[in-house]
Design brief:
Elements lengths: L4 E3 L4 H14 L6 E5 L2 H7 L7 E5 L3 H12 L4 E5 L12 E3 L5 H6 L2 H11 L8 H10 L1 H12 L11 H4 E2 L4 E2 L1 H11 L4 H14 L6 H5 L4 H11 L9 H12 L6 H13 L10
Parallel strand pairs: 1-3, 2-3, 2-4, 4-5
Antiparallel strand pairs: 6-7
Helix pairs in contact: 1-3, 5-13, 7-10, 12-13
């Protein structure tokens, strides 16, 4: 298996020019272009797709993916994005990970979570199904707040939020009050808006939710950071969320996902190859 062609750190104009030139030079009409949001997506698709597939990192996350695919306007140019909380899914040639995002697609299978825990936390109870369920339940408050912020266009700044600082090691749970304080500190001009959103979240917490419901709203980075708290014995505090993600990617059978089957159907429809015959 050869190496995939990867393009990263390019400006919008450079990406569109690169695609146009490559399409014009593709005499065999076999190349495919997959536009992704960031480096984690590149890491996931590398060695899964065929050598004729060029993976390109967006210049600006999801919105950049959508713009590039729309402006390129060619069947061989597709985008893959986190679903997040999008409800408008009508854009052509834009495909989404199962559940909320890449991380939630990987974590949707409890057996994978259990195996990862056996490697990273041997002998610890974090690998139990009880803790697996608790992981998403602990994030339910924050996940719902993120969802409300998106749906109501509140633009709450979550970038400075620290899962680790709000984690109670004695109870292995998140301290919601600390999360609130953190959010209000980072959004001083939106105190009333956040308080109202928090009230809405509190109302929704009593609703019955399944693990599948929570997989559809849980932010992948939140889940990885909370897993880091469970695996507190691990070294390299600044990189262990990336290490957990890499391990999840290595353990995941992509052929079992809805996304794989959707992309496979699309490749047959346009007569081009996206995946190698053997995909892990």
């Amino acid at each position: 298996m050869g190496a995939n062609t990867i393009k990263a750190n390019l400006r919008k104009e450079e990406i569109l020019t690169e695609i146009k030139l490559s399409i014009n030079a593709d005499m065999r009409k076999e190349n495919m272009f997959i536009i992704v949001e960031g480096y984690d997506d590149i890491r996931f698709f590398t060695h899964k797709v065929a050598n004729s597939v060029i993976i390109i990192e967006s210049y600006s996350g999801k919105e950049g993916v959508k713009e590039i695919v729309t402006k390129a306007n060619h069947a061989s140019v597709i985008g893959i994005c986190d679903l997040d909380y999008d409800t408008q899914l009508s854009l052509e040639r834009i495909f989404y990970y199962d559940h909320c995002c890449l991380e939630m697609m990987l974590l949707a299978d409890y057996k994978i979570y259990k195996n990862i825990c056996a490697i990273l936390a041997p002998g610890m109870i974090v690998g139990s199904e009880v803790v697996y369920n608790k992981l998403f339940q602990e994030l339910k408050w924050l996940s719902n707040l993120r969802r409300i912020s998106f749906m109501e266009n509140l633009n709450i700044n979550f970038r400075g939020l620290s899962i680790a600082n709000a984690f109670n090691k004695n109870s292995n749970s998140l301290n919601i009050e600390k999360l609130k304080i953190n959010l209000l500190k980072d959004n001083p001009e939106k105190e009333a808006i956040i308080e109202k959103a928090i009230d809405d979240v509190q109302t929704s917490l009593d609703d019955e939710t399944t693990i599948n419901d929570l997989l559809n709203i849980t932010n992948g980075h939140d889940a990885l950071y909370l897993m880091c708290c469970y695996f507190e014995h691990m070294e390299s505090e600044n990189t262990k969320d990336k290490y957990i993600l890499q391990t999840l990617i290595a353990a995941y059978d992509f052929t079992q996902s809805k996304l794989y089957n959707t992309l496979n159907d699309y490749s047959k429809k346009i007569g081009r190859i996206i995946f190698e015959k053997s995909v892990a």
